[in-house]
Design a protein that fits this description.
Radius of gyration: 18 Å
Number of helices: 10
Number of strands: 11
EC number: 1.2.1.10
Structural class: alpha/beta
Helix content: 25-40%
Keywords: Aromatic hydrocarbons catabolism, NAD, Oxidoreductase
Strand content: 25-35%
Family: Belongs to the acetaldehyde dehydrogenase family.
GO molecular function: acetaldehyde dehydrogenase (acetylating) activity; NAD binding
CATH topology of the largest domain: Dihydrodipicolinate Reductase, domain 2
Protein name: Acetaldehyde dehydrogenase
Length: 284
């Protein structure tokens, strides 16, 4: 499948290395707007086509089947109709929420007909599988997540999108995770040495919940995420206190572009590749 990456920052550059390893994809172009971008320089070194003309370059390239957008929510809202008109399937790694929200191990096939899927946020990809694991056993009245990420792993595009990041993640806790209400928070930690991505999940459930069934369901979801994000692991097993479960997970990155502490980049890019793999399987 001929594919292109729009955005040559941290996320786009890390994604380039993941696509390079996957024989399903033919990476034709990495497009950005900054001539001094490290991501574009690395793409050229690897022999990929590059451009500083952004979306225009991808539309002019022709033959692209999938575009991975790693720019900003504002940019994707403008670009999405143009990709759809060109017949390009868009995988949106911004919190623009143009297409349906997708978490690979929860609702993989949603949005394929729309030719646009939204991967919500790195925090959502790390925590929604856990909320879903609880909600398929017991009604989740409220879900709250706190994602802590290293400042070094958060580029200018992500910082610009923090408000959208929070709101889109909150909505997805309900729409995809199954919670009645949701709240999402992110902590950008400047600690040096940098800390690995960590996530705390809090869910309020019915008091007569079967605790063991919830634990088994959550552990099964962890295994499913690990099938495409090997560095995903449980740090606090589900434990019930009165009417709520507390659960902790962390994500260690594969170290493709940024060091392993940048699990937030790794999980959203791994999710993007998993969605693209599935989309390709429906086309051939």
């Amino acid at each position: 499948m001929p594919v292109a990456i729009l955005g040559s920052g941290n996320i786009g550059t890390d994604l380039m290395y993941k696509l390079q390893r996957n024989p399903m994809f033919d990476l034709r172009l990495v497009a950005g707007i900054d001539p001094a971008s490290e991501g574009l320089a690395r793409a050229r070194e690897l022999g990929y086509g590059t451009s500083t003309d952004g979306v225009e370059a991808i539309l002019e390239e022709g033959g692209i089947g999938i575009v991975f957008e790693a720019t900003s929510a504002r940019a994707h809202r403008q670009n999405a109709p143009r990709f759809k008109e060109a017949g390009i399937f868009a995988i949106d790694l911004t919190p623009a929420k143009v297409g349906p929200s997708v978490v690979p191990c929860v609702n993989m096939d949603d949005g394929f007909d729309a030719k646009n899927v939204n991967l919500i946020s790195c925090a959502a990809q790390a925590t929604i599988p856990i909320v879903h694991g609880v909600s398929r056993v017991s009604k989740v009245k409220y879900a709250e997540i706190v994602a802590t990420v290293s400042s070094r792993s958060v580029g200018p595009g992500t910082r610009e999108n923090i408000e959208e990041f929070t709101l889109t993640s909150q909505k997805a806790l309900m729409e995809v995770g199954g919670a009645g209400r949701g709240k999402a928070m992110v902590v950008i930690n400047p600690a040096d040495p940098p800390l690995i991505m960590r996530n705390t999940i809090y869910t309020i459930v019915d008091r007569d919940v079967d605790e063991q069934r919830v634990k088994d369901s959550v552990l099964e979801m962890v295994k499913q995420v690990q099938s495409y994000v090997p560095g995903y692991r449980l740090t606090v097993e589900p434990f019930l206190r009165d009417d709520h479960f507390m659960i902790g997970v962390e994500v260690e990155g594969a170290g493709d572009f940024l060091p392993p502490y940048a699990g937030n980049l790794d999980i959203i890019n791994a999710a993007a590749v998993a969605v693209a793999d599935r989309y390709c399987a429906t086309q051939f």
